[in-house]
Automatic annotation (TrEMBL):
Annotated membrane topology: Multi-pass membrane protein
Lineage: Bacteria, Bacillati, Bacillota, Bacilli, Lactobacillales
GO MF annotation terms: transmembrane transporter activity
Keyword hit for 4Fe-4S: no
UniProt protein name: Amino acid permease
Predominant location: membrane
Pfam families reported for this sequence: AA_permease_2 (PF13520)
UniProt-listed NCBIfam families: antiport_TyrP
Native source species: Vagococcus allomyrinae
Bilayer-crossing regions: 35-54, 86-109, 121-139, 151-172, 200-220, 232-253, 282-304, 331-353, 359-383, 404-426, 438-457
Length: 470
């Protein structure tokens, strides 16, 4: 058998950055003004790096397909392994609603009707139409293969680079504006305003930039000298992303007037900057179309990605035979259709919460909470496996010997995810005073229900659910 080609250090850095390169989260970052610098450092150092390094050890030691589910199952048993795979599936219900919500905003700019981006009913309709259309197309065609890497280049890299260039040009012309989020700098503005607890949940939205950081660890075994090169790749990737996101975030914060940031509208800063710099307005139509293509390609990838993991879980007997059905192309059709139905129901939040920007933040927070539960299980598993399976061959190991470094890294990760969950339960400033209790009830209920369903399914699963091999 031909030996597979090893990834170079720079190749792994590129792959790692590709997982997180997006302009979609820039408005959330920018809305915190100067505080975004500290928030990004907290998200990178306390969240992204510890989880990525733990995942590197786990994925190189247990490289079987399944990732986090396999790690947690080996450490904590079948039940919690299933909970992990379940949460990684159901978080997509909220995450894809958040991603799809930008379709309506971008489409409004493409057709020169930007006011549609503030119409919650239009956003709701666009989520339903775009997600169902992409779902049906993926049942017939391999849309990710068709779109390929061009979708990321057109929809992510070019718009991100354009935003950074425009931001630098805007700053060169205007300096720090007196109307933007960066006006009247003082050192205390770098730190979170603890007198306004409603501003803290935005940190959750910033941490979401790094959600999925464990994914790149699947390539750790495919790189020369993983013990040396993987941590270098992770650290460099995270640092580059921090720098680029901060340049983009500070640029947007400088351009958009205070209290006018639309978190779901990435085209807003483009419009402000191009008007000021004298760039033809058609540029905004083109850039909106490019980002829209990127969003649709991302949605397409997520339609089938998690479902492929869930069909393995179903075949192992963790879900009823209903979820094991495949179409002619081998796609788990019932899983794909169930997730489309649930995503349609979750998108109804855009009708319940008329403020599009507020709904966007609330759903982002829900997604991050569910991810944090998974990261808590991964952190506990990393420690547990050091003692339960001490002799397992670890191509990449945190610490040459002993368990001290693993304890240190996992405790940082556990503290950061617990703090993130607690901060997420503080109602954002955009949520009205009368809705504070409803917000807390929603976030707590969504988390408990999603974890609870997995535990109930595991509790009542039957031997007959396991797929019989012919």
């Amino acid at each position: 058998m031909e030996k597979s080609k090893k990834l170079s250090l720079f190749g792994l850095i590129g792959i790692t950055m590709a997982f997180f390169g997006t302009v979609r989260s820039v408005p959330t970052l920018a809305s915190t003004g100067w505080t975004q610098i500290v928030y990004m450092l907290i998200a990178a150092c306390m969240f992204a790096l510890p989880i990525a390094l733990m995942s590197a050890e786990l994925s190189t030691t247990w490289p079987q397909e399944g990732g986090p589910q396999v790690w947690v199952r080996n450490a904590l048993g079948e039940k919690w392994g299933f909970v992990t795979s379940w949460l990684l599936w159901v978080q997509m219900f909220f995450g894809m609603v958040m991603v799809a919500s930008t379709v309506g905003v971008l489409l409004g700019y493409v057709i020169d009707q930007p006011e549609l981006g503030s119409n919650s009913l239009f956003i709701f309709a666009c989520i339903l139409i775009s997600y169902w259309l992409i779902t049906l197309l993926n049942l017939k065609f391999d849309m990710v293969k068709i779109a390929g890497d061009w979708g990321a280049i057109i929809g992510v890299y070019i718009p991100f680079l354009a935003l950074v260039i425009l931001g630098i040009a805007y700053f060169a012309k205007n300096g720090i504006t007196t109307t933007g989020y960066l006006a009247d700098f003082s050192v205390d503005k770098l730190l979170p305003d603890l007198s306004d607890l409603g501003s803290l949940p935005t940190l959750t939205g910033i941490i979401f930039i790094f959600a999925g950081v464990e994914i790149s660890s699947v390539h750790a075994n495919n790189i020369d000298n993983p013990k040396r090169n993987y941590p270098i790749a992770v650290i460099v990737s995270v640092l580059v992303l921090v720098v680029f996101n901060l340049i983009a975030g500070l640029s947007v914060a400088n351009a958009v007037p205070m209290d006018q940031m639309n978190l779901a509208n990435i085209t807003q800063p483009f419009v402000i900057m191009t008007e000021d710099l004298g760039v033809p307005a058609i540029f905004n139509n083109i850039i909106s179309l490019m980002i829209l293509i990127g969003v649709l390609v991302q949605l397409s990838a997520w339609v089938l990605g998690p479902s492929k993991s869930m069909i393995k879980v179903a075949d192992e007997g963790n879900l009823p035979s209903f979820f094991q059905k495949r179409n002619q192309r081998g796609i788990p059709i019932n899983i794909v259709l169930v997730q489309a139905v649930v995503i349609s129901l979750v998108s109804f939040l855009y009708v319940v919460i008329p403020d599009v920007s507020e709904a966007f933040l609330v759903i982002t927070i829900t997604t991050t909470i569910l991810y944090c539960v998974v990261y808590l299980l991964i952190s506990i598993s990393a420690i547990r496996l050091r003692y339960a399976m001490p002799d397992a061959v670890r191509p990449f190991r945190l610490g040459a010997k002993g368990n001290g470094l693993m304890w240190f890294v996992s405790i940082i990760a556990m503290v950061s995810v617990i703090v993130t969950i607690l901060v997420s339960l503080i109602p954002p400033s955009s949520v009205g005073q009368t809705q504070h209790l409803a917000y807390v009830i929603y976030q707590v209920s969504a988390t408990i229900i999603m974890v609870g369903i997995a535990l109930l399914i595991n509790r009542f699963k039957k031997p007959s659910w396991k797929k019989q091999l012919n």
